[in-house]
Amino acid sequence: MKRNILITGGAGFIGSHVVRLFVGKYPDCRIVNLDRLTYAGNLANLRDVENRPNYTFVKGDICDYDAMRSLFAEYDIDGVIHLAAESHVDRSIRDPFTFAWTNVMGTLTLLQAAREHWNGTWEGRRFHHISTDEVYGALPFDGTLFTEQTRYDPHSPYSASKASSDHFVRAFHDTYGFPAVVTNCSNNYGPYQFPEKLIPLFINNIRHEKPLPVYGRGENIRDWLYVEDHARAIDTIFHRGRDGETYNIGGFNEWRNIDLIRVIIRTVDRLLGRPEGASEKLITYVTDRAGHDLRYAIDSRKLKEELGWEPSLQFEEGIEKTVRWYLANQEWMDDITSGEYERYYQEMYTGR
Ligand code: NAD
Ligand code: TYD
Predict the structure, then answer these.
(1) Measured from the CB, is residue 194 less than 6 Å from ligand 1?
(2) How far is the CA of 331 from the centre of ligand 1 (A)?
(3) Cα separation, 71 vs 60, whole angstroms
(4) What structural domains and CATH numbers belong to the chain?
(5) Ranges for the NAD(P)-binding domain (predicted)?
(6) Looking at the DSSP assignment, which residues form a beta bridge with residue 284?
(7) DSSP 146
(8) Cβ(234)–Cβ(188) below 8 Å
(9) What is the spatial order of strands in the sheet that 246-249 belongs to?
(10) At 224, is the pLDDT very low, low, confident or very high (cuts 50, 70, 90)?
């Protein structure tokens, strides 16, 4: 059992769910959340756990080697769940340097700090690297799935940076015997997701009767997983997965963007008491994302067969919960969508 667990990026979307799960489930472990609080990091995501005795927040940058070395020493970290990253494909197209810096150099910095602190004693230690299915590239519309054996073929600066970081983690395992595990997950949805991503962005725009920018013809396919199911998978693999292994995590839940968007529209309209389909008129087809991957779909049978994990939530239930959460937490949304982010968003769409 790891005692002092470092979760990086814990103030972000997925990280906040992992922190919440671990703080509640493991009262005898110290959970250290290290986050730089970039535009995507928000301590409001963790209000309900911030005063728990086994929780510590540290503001810091994973690229800062000296700070990371001190952090490992100060808390005697024996387990790492590494989620801190730049995570949005559209931003990576505009600003690839930041992605290489944070995702590649930041991961390497953490690996080195962990290796130095653990100093060859790997027993009881673990570095769990959180990655994405986007490293595998794009699938055709033919029913095939990404498995753990699929060759890496990243297309966006985001997925290229994540692929590179995955390679560094595996290189540490293969070179030093470093105790690492990598997981590649499909698209997550649920509460606390930054509203630059499709689902929260569209829920918010429908509420405010703003245009819904559908890239290309809306035919791209993503495989959606409720974020708490991802957090449970991380818990399972962090504690019971095998060193040096990769586990794919997915929902077996593929949706064409335009079909998903129509489900969101129907759900928001119903919950706001609007006539069915009232917000369909907001759908606005815009120039496609450069290099837009056609289809992602994960085969997560290895995780089910080896460790017994499977998604717990049906998609209809997950979307209903998600829409209700965003509508009930408008203040959380307004705090984010005012100011700097609103300016970025306007520039994105007027500048494309
Ligand atoms: P997010 O953008 O919501 O959160 C990222 C967090 O990392 C933020 O809190 C941010 O402040 C922090 N951060 C960024 N740079 C940092 C730095 N230099 N030092 C310390 N903290 C820093 O991202 P997310 O959607 O929660 O994704 C978390 C992880 O999961 C990422 O590694 C991402 O690649 C991966 N992932 C995401 C998805 C998805 O659908 N969102 C799917 C699969 C994998
Ligand atoms: P996104 O949430 O950005 O996740 P990812 O690019 O990592 O899959 O986008 C999900 C899908 O929705 C993707 O195919 C791009 C598309 N999309 C739009 O059509 N319009 C939008 O405004 C956004 C943000 C995404």
Answers:
(1) yes
(2) 22
(3) 9
(4) 4-189+224-249 (3.40.50.720), 198-221+254-291+315-341 (3.90.25.10)
(5) 6-322
(6) 213
(7) B
(8) no
(9) 55-59, 30-35, 4-8, 79-82, 126-132, 180-185, 246-249
(10) very high
Residue 136 known to be catalytic:
no
Which residue puts its alpha carbon closest to atom 21 of ligand 2? 198
Q: What is the pTM of this model?
A: 0.97
Is the pLDDT reported for residue 351 higher than 60? Answer: no
To the query of whether residue 344 is one of the catalytic residues in this protein, the response is no
Mean pLDDT of 293-309: 98
CB 11 less than 6 A from any atom of ligand 1:
yes
| pLDDT, average across residues 143-168 | 98
Ligand nearest to the CA of 187: 1
- pLDDT above 70 covers what percent of the chain? 96
Q: What is the amino acid identity at position 185?
A: C
pLDDT bucket at 337, cuts 50 / 70 / 90: confident
Ligand nearest the Cα atom of residue 196: 2
Q: How far is the CA of 27 from the centre of ligand 1 (A)?
A: 25
Task: Measure 196 CA to ligand 2 centroid, in angstroms.
Answer: 9
- Tell me the best of 103, 215, 350 to mutate to test the pocket of ligand 2, counting ligand atoms within 8 Å of each CB and taking the most: 215
> H helices of the chain, where?
13-25, 65-75, 89-94, 96-99, 106-118, 157-176, 198-207, 227-240, 257-271, 301-307, 315-328, 330-337, 340-351
Share of the chain above pLDDT 90, in %: 94
Q: What is the pLDDT of residues 244-253, one digit of tens each?
A: 999 999 999 9
